[in-house]
């Protein structure tokens, strides 16, 4: 379905000729609709923890007033809910910052080995808390691509954090950097592989959508906003990079980032 805005004007002075301009509005409408959906989803995601906090405040002021055990439990839940809201706001801010600067600063380079080493270091505490060992398989030689270091850090951090959270039961995650196997374009493939429950085929095309979370036990118990992979996708598009996802249920999931060298 396409919609056009049509405007007419005369050509020259009293020539009797008209110019009709057809402006395709379908894309503008689609973007408006996406924006409205996004605001509705974001508001709902923020409203849910807020409603829960308001409910517990009421209980604490009423029935649970003199019950110290209930009070401690409710305060803990309220603290978790504020954490959830803070994560959501951080992710929303990341998305909006990315949208505000649509292009990358040209001329900057990222050392993948050094960036991924620091991602692994920063996720060390989460990995050990979840009983996950992170293994490195890095190719030798220089592993440098054009790009923004902070943004690529965020990409690998999101993917590795997911592997440690959702693939926890596999006990092991591997991070590899290899020369790209995509014959046409020289570059590097960074693969983050876990050995957890994996992702059913029907969910794979949807997990990079905003707010999409697979409704399985692991997503319900793990903290998340459903925005991580959409931020990853956004950043990769700016880097002319691609994300491919392979998974076999029960055997784990592999997320590969294909980064062009130039
Ligand atoms: P979040 O982790 O905040 O929920 P993401 O956008 O990072 O959001 O991920 C979306 C969903 O994709 C997750 O909720 C989870 O259901 C699924 N997912 C992501 N990574 C994995 C993985 N390594 N194994 C299994 N499921 C995953």
Automatic annotation (TrEMBL):
Parent sequence residues shown: 160 to 421 of 421
Domain Histidine kinase: 41-262
Catalytic activity: ATP + protein L-histidine = ADP + protein N-phospho-L-histidine
Protein name as annotated: histidine kinase
Keywords: ATP-binding, Cell membrane, Kinase, Membrane, Nucleotide-binding, Phosphoprotein, Transferase, Transmembrane, Transmembrane helix, Two-component regulatory system
Taxonomic path: Bacteria, Pseudomonadati, Pseudomonadota, Alphaproteobacteria, Hyphomicrobiales
Single biological process term from Gene Ontology: cellular response to phosphate starvation
GO molecular function: ATP binding; phosphoprotein phosphatase activity; phosphorelay sensor kinase activity
Presence of keyword Chaperone: no
Cellular compartments annotated: Cell membrane
GO annotation, cellular component aspect: plasma membrane
Domain of life: Bacteria
């Amino acid at each position: 379905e396409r919609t056009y805005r049509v405007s007419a004007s005369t050509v020259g002075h009293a020539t009797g000729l008209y110019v009709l301009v057809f402006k395709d509005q379908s894309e503008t409408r689609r973007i408006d609709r996406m924006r409205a959906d996004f605001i509705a989803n974001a508001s709902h995601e923020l409203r849910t923890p807020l409603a829960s906090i308001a409910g517990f405040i009421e209980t604490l002021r009423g029935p649970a007033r003199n019950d110290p055990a209930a009070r401690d439990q409710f305060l803990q839940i309220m603290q978790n809910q504020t954490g959830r809201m803070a994560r959501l706001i951080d992710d929303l801010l990341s998305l909006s910052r990315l949208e505000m600067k649509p292009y990358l600063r040209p001329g900057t380079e990222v050392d993948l080995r050094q960036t991924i080493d620091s991602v692994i270091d920063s996720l060390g505490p989460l990995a050990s808390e979840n009983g996950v060992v992170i293994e490195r398989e890095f190719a030798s030689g220089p592993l440098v691509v054009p790009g923004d270091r902070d943004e690529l850090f965020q990409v690998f951090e999101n993917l590795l954090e997911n592997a440690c959270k959702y693939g926890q039961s596999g006990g092991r995650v591997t991070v590899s950097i290899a020369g790209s196997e995509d014959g046409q374009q020289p570059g590097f493939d960074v693969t983050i592989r876990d050995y957890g429950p994996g992702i059913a085929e029907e969910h794979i095309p949807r997990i990079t959508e905003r707010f999409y979370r697979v409704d399985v036990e692991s997503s319900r118990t793990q903290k998340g906003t459903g925005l991580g992979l959409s931020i990853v996708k956004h950043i990769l598009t700016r880097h002319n990079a691609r994300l491919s996802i392979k998974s076999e249920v029960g055997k784990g999931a592999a997320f590969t980032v294909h980064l062009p060298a130039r």
